[in-house]
Amino acid sequence: MRKISVRGLLNLDKKRKNKLGKLLVAGLFLTLIIIYFPINRFVSHGVSLKTFLDESISLIPVFVIPYLIGATLILFMPLFFIYKLSEEDFKKYVLVFLSSTILSYLIYLIFPTYVDRPLIQSQNDIFSKLLTFLYSVDKSYNAAPSGHTFYSIINGVFLLNLSDNNIFKFFVVAGFFIIILSTLFTKQHYLLDVISGILFAYLFLLIGNTFIKIAS
Predict the structure, then answer these.
(1) Which end is more exposed in the chain, N or C (fewer Cβ atoms within 10 Å of the end residue's Cβ)?
(2) 97 near 78, Cβ under 8 Å?
């Protein structure tokens, strides 16, 4: 009969607790992301942050593809990081993700903003059809700060920490930059929405770094 040491039992118990903790965090991530949709449906009125510069930005339906990819990454990147980030980086990510998400929801409720989206005339191509579908399921509220923007920057920063490969870093930066651009070319956001999203990401990354340094 195989003997099991006390240390082995403790390590096994620690692994089980660690796995359970990760599952609970994953559930928390998914719950917070899903909460976006009732807020998006609940909010009405608000203000538009449109500027004269937004008039010069054309609607380019093909950018619905990177926009939808960005939405998918918002959902799945937290789950990916659960298993790929170091313990310290993951603690920082949890702090940054949760605090930025919760505060953005409070802003959407207390200071609602919206986008005047254009009527898509042509339905002859798949991109226009996808964009029309996007408009139908995602109301024009929750504009500032742009979630696609601050999540892209936050996820991009932590993803860059996973590798020193310059080609990998190039594609990460380029990919998330295109996702941020897609918010403008799909007319899902205005320039000020994107700028506020950039500042939002910077603020919470700074808070995350500062808090972890103090805690350690």
Answers:
(1) N
(2) yes
